[in-house]
Every structure is written in C-alpha cells, then in structure tokens.
Design a protein that fits this description.
Elements (H helix, E strand, L loop, with lengths): L1 E3 L3 H10 L6 E5 L3 E3 L4 H5 L5 H4 E3 H4 L6 E5 L2 E5 L4 E4 L4 E3 L3 E3 L3 E3 L17 H20 L3 H7 L1 E5 L3 H17 L13 E6 L10 H14 L1 E5 L3 E5 L2 E4 L2 E4 L2 E4 L3 E3 L16 E2 L5 E2 L2 E6 L4 E2 L1 E2 L2 E2 L4 H20 L13 E6 L2 E5 L4 E3 L1 H14 L3 H17 L46 H8 L2
Parallel strand pairs: 1-2, 1-9, 2-5, 9-21, 11-12, 11-17, 12-13, 19-22
Antiparallel strand pairs: 3-4, 6-7, 7-8, 10-18, 14-15, 15-16, 20-21, 23-24, 25-26, 26-27
C-alpha cells in the first residue's frame, strides 16, 4: 500500500500500519516532517528549523515494513490503482492513504502571493524571517522618514490562530527583543497591525476567549482591526476599505485551500477543494482509496471538521485501522473525532485555551499550550531543545536565531524580499551623532528610559 504525504496524517498512518502485515511505501516531496503549529516561531526566530522538523526516515526507522521515498505525487489514477509522480515514475497500490494537507489560499487573488507569503513549510518560515529582520536592517539605513515608517510597519492578514500568534510574536520582537540593538531607529516604535475580516479574532473560539485574546494582543501593542478586508496587496503595502497601509512586510494568515491532488480523484469536492469522503474515510466508489486530514471534507454534527493537527492524526489512525479491519475480514468503523480543544499563544505568559472542560486565558493557558506542544513534537531531542529555547527566551526575551543568511534576501530571490541596495551609497550624517527625526528620542535618552 501507499501513503502520500509525510505530515501529521501520513506519519501517524505509517506508524499505525507498522504493526500490520503489510508493505507500506510513504511518499513525500521533502525528506522531513514539519511540526506546523510551531512554524511561526521559526519565522520569528524563536526556534531553528531543525527544532521543529525531523527526517521522516528517522521518525519511521523502527517501522521495518515502511519504505520512505522522496518524490512529488501529481495525480492518482484510481481506476488503475496507480500513483503518478512528477518525474514520470508511477507506483501501483492495493490501498492508498492521501494525506497531502493544505496550501495557501488567497481567495482568487494569487497576485498577492509574492508580497504576502504564508506559513506552511520550513522554506516559508525562513522567507518570512528574512523579511522581518531585513526590514529592521533597511530601516536603520533609511534616512527618509516616510520610507522608514513603511519598513517598520508589519501587517498580518488573518485573525485565526496563526495570525494571532504571528502578530503577538512580532510585537514582542519590536518591544522586548530588539530595542537596545539599533542606534538610528527605535524598534519599539514599530507598528504591528492585525487585519481580520470577521467580527472578532479567533472566530472558532467562544466569544469570551476571542475578547481576551484581543485584549492581550493590544496590551502587547498590536493594533487589531476587525471587519477589515484586504482588497489589494503590493510591494508598497495593503489597501483596506480604500485606504493604503504603507508596509514593506505583509504576512498572509487568512485562508487555506486543499492540496490540488484531490482534483485527480474524480469525486465531489467542497468549496476549498477537499474531497468529500464516506464515513469510513474512503472516497465514493473506491473503498481502497482513503483521504485524511486537511485534504478530506469530514462532517460531524452537521459541520465540517477544522484543518488542525488532531483531525489529521485521528483520521489517519482510523484509516489505517479500517485497512487492517478489511484485511482481517472485519467491518470498517466510521470515523468519530474526539475534540481535545483549541489553543493559541499570544506572547510571554499570554495565551487562550479552550479545553472543553475548562477555558483558560493568560499564564495558565500559556503553560498548558507549551506543555502540550512539547509533548506532540517528534523526537526526544527536539523536545529538550525546544524547552531549553523557550526557558531561555522567557527569562531573557532573546531570540537567538536572528540570522539573515543565504540568497533569499538578494535581488535575484523569487519572490524578492526587499529591493536590493547593492552598489548604493550609504548616506552618512554630517555630524557624528545620528540624525533623528524630532519625534524620535536620541539613543541615549531612549536607553535611559528603557533602563528604568
């Protein structure tokens, strides 16, 4: 049998089938599994990529019946029971589990993508990190006050968990991590704006927790705008309700769409491209094809299940169990999702958590969030590293991974991070003291006020 995808769904399906008398081939276009809930911390330099990613082969090294192959699947030929890869190769299967997850959705405005990257992969996280810290570097060199304000304005589009976590981290970077490290700018004056098209942030949470999350964001200095739809995004910023927000760093956290692989199945899809599956997670007319996680439209209680890690994990285990049941001649069981709650962190000792039996906000919600996320990381080493990094950051406010490296910030990068200034002359103030705008405190007075 074949598993397509090495995310939560694919990895947990492979682990479940490791105990069964079957031969499994797992295909993924990368060689690693990424713990996506912490990807925003890679983007904001709280963690390194290796802290939240693990090679798929290492994660499955004890599963002797599982073969891991690196390759991108382009389509499934369901009638022939064949998986086709981008390089022209194909693999036949008796059963297949599709767990390729979701990608960014710009709601029909794909032209936004070069100017507002999202967060789905390690590469996305590194690109966003480069843009964030390059903005500060460019602002330190910029002498035009208008351009400097645009460089120090960060806009996050989308008020779901990723958007809320990203906005909170950006505010902490500006106000707690960077202020003592620059001489011509005051990073604490940077503006972080969170745009949400609905009535409140964290719309899937109960209203009381949404309200607490917004208050915690505002206490960090985030400007939260609800009922604010981004109608255009370009290299100069975002247009909201006909007004331009000048910004050189826009981050997209507003929507997702299912992997295009579902289109090759020839089954009904929902509005975001997910395959509508049977109760046992197989597709109509093909009991040997299972779809799990973000690629599957699964309803429970009349509502579709959200695209979260727990849905992927539980549905993958159910699909694997149903394959084992079929091989044993036992009836399949319908999938039932057990909701273990929702969590979102906002900053140091600030978070909200809906655990079903309890609704928490503040320090205890943050502590629960930290413990649960560490437990679900793959690999003991990663758990230890993340705990140490978080403990260090909690007491020092430092983010040790603020490296701008590689070619992603050069003019040739696709998409470009910022316009290159190679070859341009760096303006040098005539006086030995940096020239500051009247509204900006001098480095000495700023340092003195921060030392109180």
């Amino acid at each position: 049998m074949v598993i397509v995808g090495g995310g939560f769904g694919g990895l947990y399906a492979a682990k479940a089938l490791a105990r069964e008398p079957v031969r499994v081939t797992l295909l993924d276009k990368t060689n690693h599994h990424t713990f996506q809930p912490l990807l925003y911390q890679v983007a904001t330099a709280g963690l390194n990529p290796g802290d939240i990613a693990v090679p798929i082969r290492r994660a499955l090294r004890k599963a002797e019946n599982v073969t891991v192959l690196m390759g991108e699947v382009t389509r499934i030929e369901v009638d022939a029971r064949r998986v086709h890869l981008e390089d022209g190769a194909s693999i036949d299967y008796d059963y297949v589990i599709l767990a390729t997850g979701a990608t960014h959705s710009y709601f029909g405005h794909d032209e936004f993508a070069p100017f507002a990257p999202g967060l789905k992969t390690i590469d996305d996280g590194l690109l966003v990190r480069q843009r964030i810290y390059l903005a500060y570097e460019e602002a330190e060199r910029e002498t035009d006050e208008r351009k400097r304000r645009a460089l120090l304005t960060f806009v996050v589009v989308g008020g779901g968990p990723t958007g809320v976590e990203m906005a909170g981290a950006l505010a902490e970077i500006a106000r707690k991590t960077l202020p003592r490290e620059f001489r011509r700018i005051d990073p604490s004056k940077a503006k972080v704006i969170l745009l949400e098209g609905g009535d409140r942030v964290l719309a899937s949470y109960v209203p009381a927790l949404s309200e607490k999350a917004q208050k915690q964001l505002e206490q960090l200095g985030v400007e939260v705008r609800t009922r604010a739809l981004a109608t255009a995004i370009d290299a100069d910023g975002v247009i909201v309700e006909g007004k331009k927000i000048a910004s050189k760093t826009v981050i997209w956290a507003a929507g997702v769409a299912a992997s295009p692989l579902a289109r090759s199945l020839g089954v009904p899809l929902d509005k975001v491209g997910r395959a509508i599956v049977e109760p046992d997670l197989s597709i109509p007319g093909h009991a040997e094809v299972f779809v799990v996680g973000d690629l599957a439209h699964i309803e429970q209680g009349g509502n579709p299940l959200p695209g979260v890690a727990q849905v992927a994990i539980q549905s993958a285990k159910c699909a694997a169990d149903n394959i084992a049941r079929t091989l044993d001649g036992r009836p399949r069981r319908p999938f039932h999702y057990k909701d273990k709650g929702n969590m979102a962190t906002i900053g140091k000792a600030a978070a909200v958590a809906d655990l079903g039996f309890a609704k928490l906000a503040g320090f205890f919600a943050w502590l629960a969030w930290a413990v649960i996320h560490v437990l679900f990381l793959i690999g003991f080493k990663n758990r230890v590293i993340v705990m140490v990094q978080w403990a260090w950051g909690y007491f020092t406010q430092d983010r040790g991974s603020r490296l701008i490296h590689g070619m992603v910030h050069e003019r040739e990068a696709e998409p470009p991070v910022l316009p290159s200034r190679r070859g341009a002359e760096l303006p040098v103030p005539a006086a030995t003291v940096p020239q500051l705008s009247p509204a900006q405190p001098s480095p000495a007075s700023a340092a003195a006020s921060r030392s109180d």
